[in-house]
Amino acid sequence: MNLHEQTCNWSTLQLAYQNASRGKRGRGATAEFESLLADNLLELESELQERTYQPGAYSSFYIHEPKKRLISAAPFRDRVVHHALCNITVPHFEKLFIADSYANRVGKGTHRAIDRCQQFARKYKYALQCDVAQFFPSIDHEVLRATLKQMLPDESLFWLVDRILASGQKVLANEYDMAYFRGDDLLSVTRPRGLPIGNLTSQWWANCYLNPFDHFVRRELGCKAYLRYVDDFLLFSDDKRQLMQWRDAIINRLERFRLTLHVRSAYPRPVTEGVPFLGFMIFPDHRRLKQRKGFAYRRKLRHLLQTADMKTIRASAQGWINHVRYADTLRLRESVLGNVGLLYS
Fold first, then answer.
1. Over the Cα atoms of the chain, what is R_g?
2. pLDDT tens readout for residues 228-278
3. Contacting residues for 46 by C-beta, under 8 A, at least 6 apart
4. Cα–Cα distance between 124 and 236 in angstroms, integer?
5. pLDDT value at position 345?
6. What's phi and psi for 154, nearest 5 deg?
7. Dihedral class, residue 104 (left if φ above 0, else alpha if ψ from -120 to 50, else beta)
8. What are phi and psi of 226, to 5 degrees?
9. Phi-psi region of 222 (alpha: psi -120 to 50; beta: other; left: phi over 0)
10. Closest Cα partner for 98 from 246, 205, 207?
11. pTM, 2 dp
12. Which residues on neighbouring strands pair with residue 287, listed in sequence order?
């Protein structure tokens, strides 16, 4: 079977529903879909087989932590399709990713990325911390399609890829400041771009988008100490001048992806000053939570204490502890939670 046939498979759609509904069953749109589950899955199966499936409209809202971002939620039936598509395509992507790409992948994630960062900080003197400006709004559909074609064994699913891309093309339009690159003309402003933040497909396609860049850093630049989490990436070296040379090469290479760096922060720094990464400051011998992260949770907790039940508050506190305990945060946890009787080990 080709990729299209695998995605339309009844078992694939059943698994996709189970994954999309995990933790949400019995509530809202999930409950409505579940009330006629067999009929809804049969309808999706038919639409996918006949290639008549059309995505619905997104519901969008802003979040403000860690920074202001527009999050877009697809209708539940579309999320089932996203899971089906990813279930079939991700195994092919995984074969091509480097080991030190950490976002969304089984056995990877934030805490593994932090561990790896500290391993490099203990081995090298300097770190170059980089992040891409307006990453999700900047993702160019033509570049993404070309990359996916190189990563998938056949093109039978590209009709579906194109439908999902088109459905989210304008979602982040107001979040993007036009950037021009060498060879552009006035029509470049009309290039389709942007992946809605919130789609499962967006998370995986974002990883794919920078996969050729990962191999460029490892193979062409020869950087052995490199890791990436979505659009945040780090290079380590004992030679500060080498990191500056790599920085210039990175800026040039990212133009091929129609991306730009936040150049003001992309300078080599001694690891002894701490490496900012994923909300933490990573030192060779210890870790700290960024101060603003602590303040942000204090604000959230004050709001929860006024609006939520104790079960919700305790779940939030435990989730926060499970995250920040990966740094030296015992006193912070005592300070934030101790006064409200929520201190956990």
1. 22
2. 999 999 999 999 999 999 999 999 999 999 999 999 999 999 999 999 999
3. 52
4. 6
5. 46
6. -150, 170
7. left
8. -140, 140
9. left
10. 207
11. 0.91
12. 282
Q: What is the pLDDT of residues 57-78, one digit of tens each?
A: 999 988 877 778 899 999 999 9
Secondary structure (DSSP) of 172-215: TGGG------TT--GGGGGS-B---BTBHHHHHHHHHHTHHHHH
- Confirm if 234 and 226 have CB atoms less than 8 A apart: yes
Q: Residue 156: CA atoms inside 13 Å, Cβ hemisphere, count? A: 16
Cα–Cα distance for residue pair 191/153, rounded to 1 Å? 26
Closest CA to 157 of 92, 104, 212: 92
Q: Any idea what the Cα angle at residue 61 is, between residues 58 and 65, rounded to 5°?
A: 135
Sheet with 275-277: list strands edge to edge: 275-277, 280-282, 287-289
Token readout for 123 is 């081995």
Element (H, E) at 131: strand 126-131
> Tokens 């809804």 sit at which residue?
40
Task: Tell me if 200 sits within 8 A of 86, measured CB to CB.
Answer: yes
* CA distances for 174 relative to 61, 224, 337, angstroms: 13, 38, 39
* Dist CA 6 CA 23 (whole Å): 26
Coil, strand or helix at 37 = helix
Please say if the pLDDT value at position 344 is more than 70. no
**What contacts 147, CB < 8 A, 6 or more positions away?**
208, 209, 211, 212
Sequence-ordered list of residues with C-beta below 8 angstroms from that of 143, at least 6 positions apart, any chain: 209, 256, 257, 258
Q: What residues have CB less than 8 Å from 68, skipping those under 6 apart?
A: 62
What is the maximal distance between C-alpha atoms in the chain? 62
Q: Report CA 275 to chain centroid distance, whole Å.
A: 20
Q: What is the pLDDT of residue 339?
A: 63
Q: Which amino acid is at 288?
A: R
Strands (E), 178-336: 226-229, 232-237, 269-270, 275-277, 280-282, 287-289
C-alpha distances in Å from residue 330, one per residue of 118, 297, 300 = 19, 15, 19
Q: Which two tokens stand for residue 251?
A: 């800026």
Q: What is the dihedral of CA 14, 104, 207, 189, to 10 degrees?
A: 80
